[in-house]
Amino acid sequence: MHSFAAFGVAALLLQSYQAIWDRALFAGHAVVVAVVVAAGSLAYGVWHARPAGSVTRDLDRGRCRIEVVPGDLFEQADAHLVIGFTDVFDTDVADGRIVEESSVQGQFLRRVYLGDVAALDADLDKALTGEPFTTTGKALGKTRRYPVGTIATLGEPGRLFFCAGYSEMGPNLVARSSADMLWLSLSRLWSEVHDRGQRRPLAMPIVGATLARVDALDREALLRLILLSFVAASRERLLTTRLRIVVRPAEFGRLNRAELQAFLNSL
């Protein structure tokens, strides 16, 4: 489409010149001109259609930037991080039955807490003090179930970790979530970010994309849901100067970035 548009503009300019000056711009070289214009138009179309290295949009006259980028969540040293949990805030990765070691939550334990489960549990217990809970019938792991959307904020003011309980852990140790649960959890997350984050950059993964089993939505639909929720909340108040959604490079390559950019621009 962009190639045809460029070709049309070039042809119009050449015809306009001929109509105004009553002579061709490159008389006697029509074939060469046609080839050059066609090649240039094709090159422009290819350049314009190339996959973007990132998807970005500035909100509220540049006060907040949204970015979807490839990378490693835990290397975003300038930002607070969002870590997904289930409603019981399990942490045991011993055999992978409760928490998968390769998950974002498992990486959080290994890379931030250096595998110290007791320290992570102590910080979670402190952050969840006063939150309502019920008792589950799980045979393994933790038995306190908190309302979906509960946020346990860990860390220090300079680097916070917003642990969001956005899925339900069943007695069979299978987590599940839904678009409604995710929307509720995101709404509560943005509120906590506003209250505690001091408008510092915030980095997060595409929550709900893997083990949380939001089966009704694929990865791109989940990403759109996150973006829509954030933009809606940001219209009411400034939450952060930068939201960075970090996607694993292999997964980022499969995203339709042009459609995603168009969606973000439409919000």
At the first level of CATH, the class of the largest domain is Alpha Beta
Unreliable stretches: 43-51
pLDDT averaged over residues? 85
The total beta strand count reads 10
Which word captures the global form?
Answer: globular
Structural class: alpha/beta
Q: What separation lies between the terminal Cα atoms?
A: 24 Å
Number of spatially distinct domains = 2
CATH superfamily of the largest domain: Leucine Aminopeptidase, subunit E, domain 1
Task: Return the string of H and E elements.
Answer: HHEEEHHEEEEEHEHEHH
Range of helix content:
40-55%
Keywords: Membrane, Transmembrane, Transmembrane helix
Protein name: Thoeris protein ThsA Macro domain-containing protein
Organism: Paractinoplanes brasiliensis
How are the SSEs placed, and which strands pair?
Elements: H1 2-21, H2 30-49, E1 55-59, E2 64-70, E3 80-86, H3 104-111, H4 117-127, E4 134-135, E5 144-145, E6 151-156, E7 159-169, E8 175-176, H5 179-196, E9 202-204, H6 219-234, E10 242-247, H7 249-252, H8 257-266
Parallel strand pairs: 2-10, 3-7, 3-9, 9-10
Antiparallel strand pairs: 1-2, 4-5, 6-7, 7-8
Helix pairs in contact: 1-2, 5-6
Characterization of the model:
It is a single chain. This protein is α/β, with parallel strands linked by helices. The chain folds into two domains: 2-49; 55-266, Leucine Aminopeptidase, subunit E, domain 1 (3-Layer(aba) Sandwich). It is 40% helix and 19% strand. The protein contains eight helices and ten strands. The strands form two sheets. Strands 1, 2, 3, 6, 7, 8, 9 and 10 form an eight-stranded mixed β-sheet that branches. A two-stranded antiparallel ribbon has the order 4-5. Strand 1 (55-59) and strand 2 form a beta hairpin. Helix 1 (2-21) packs antiparallel against helix 2 (30-49) and helix 5 crosses helix 6 (219-234). The chain is globular, with a radius of gyration of 25 Å. This is Thoeris protein ThsA Macro domain-containing protein. It holds the Pfam family ThsA_Macro. It comes from Paractinoplanes brasiliensis. InterPro entries: ThsA_Macro. The chain crosses the membrane at residues 28-47.
